[in-house]
């Protein structure tokens, strides 16, 4: 019995420790994409934290400059690669289509790498049509395999061919969990941010994607200044693991608390059995 009480006390002490330390914090990565058109807003976003990841449209007027500024500030830089959507929308130059030849896709990807210095990965701009196409995404992954990049699936459509295509070329893949600002309304963006936190607590980590809108900037300013102590803002690169490395389940506050509760239940049952 004494042994069990000691174990319980240790578990509870760990639980308390967690409330004041972020050693086992759940991880939240925030990627702000569509960079390259709104320099003022983009610089403000970069200034918020070096742990915010920025994704730059390669053919935007300010691509090279803003990628350099982000890198100098310590932020992870990604290429926001334009891909064809199902619907009719204004498209970026060099938007990728499933019908394109392998050589054409390779030319566009190689250009994008040259236009966005310091990029370590890629996420899709739009792309509901392109990312659904197995052959299209195989061409993209093949082109990316020459540049040691990972792929963040923005998930602009329910089912994509990203993972399957990437696995053929050993390209690491991560996926977006929450879009912050589909609605450019601060109350809604704030709710989406809280949703990302809940996902991070549940899964150990979460990836949220937003855009350089003034409303998003305002919400991020407030939310990041008041981040709960069990949540850590991290760079996207911290969530990317090579495919060959087995990922370990992450120890989160929820995991530890559940562990403590299990131990309490065990002790309770043990005590009841003794008294029978
Ligand atoms: Zn975009």
Automatic annotation (TrEMBL):
Query: What InterPro entries does UniProt report for this protein, alphabetically?
Result: Divergent_DAC, Glyco_hydro/deAcase_b/a-brl
Question: Which Gene Ontology BP terms does the record give?
Answer: carbohydrate metabolic process
Stored Gene3D superfamilies: Glycoside hydrolase/deacetylase (3.20.20.370)
> Signal peptide span per the entry?
1-25
Provide an example Pfam family for this protein: Polysacc_deac_2
Q: What keywords are assigned to this protein?
A: Signal
The UniProt record lists the keyword Signal: yes
Q: What is this protein called?
A: Divergent polysaccharide deacetylase family protein
Originating organism? Gilliamella apicola
Q: What is the lineage of its organism?
A: Bacteria, Pseudomonadati, Pseudomonadota, Gammaproteobacteria, Orbales
């Amino acid at each position: 019995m004494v042994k069990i009480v000691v174990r319980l006390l240790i578990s509870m002490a760990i639980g308390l420790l967690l409330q004041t330390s972020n050693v086992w914090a759940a991880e939240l990565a925030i990627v702000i994409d569509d960079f390259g058109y709104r320099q003022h807003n983009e610089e403000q976003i970069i200034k918020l934290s070096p742990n915010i990841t920025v994704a730059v449209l390669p053919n935007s007027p300010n691509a090279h400059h803003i990628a350099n500024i982000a890198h100098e500030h310590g932020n992870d830089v990604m290429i926001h690669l334009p891909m064809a959507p199902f619907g009719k929308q204004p498209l970026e130059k060099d938007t990728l289509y499933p019908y394109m030849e392998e050589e054409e896709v390779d030319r566009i990807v190689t250009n994008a790498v040259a236009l966005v210095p310091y990029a370590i990965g890629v996420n899709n701009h739009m792309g509901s049509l392109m990312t659904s196409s197995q052959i299209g995404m195989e061409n993209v992954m093949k082109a990316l395999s020459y540049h040691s990049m990972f792929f963040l699936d923005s998930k602009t459509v329910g089912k994509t061919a990203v993972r399957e295509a990437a696995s053929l070329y050993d390209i690491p893949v991560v996926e977006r969990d929450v879009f912050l600002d589909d609605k450019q309304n601060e109350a809604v963006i704030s709710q989406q941010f809280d949703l990302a936190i809940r996902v991070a607590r549940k899964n150990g980590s979460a990836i949220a994607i937003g855009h350089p809108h003034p409303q998003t900037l305002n919400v991020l300013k407030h939310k990041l200044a008041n981040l709960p102590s069990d949540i850590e803002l991290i760079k996207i690169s911290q969530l990317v693991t090579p495919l060959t490395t087995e990922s370990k389940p992450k120890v989160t506050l929820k995991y530890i608390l559940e562990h403590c509760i299990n131990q309490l239940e065990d002790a309770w049952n043990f005590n009841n059995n003794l008294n029978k």
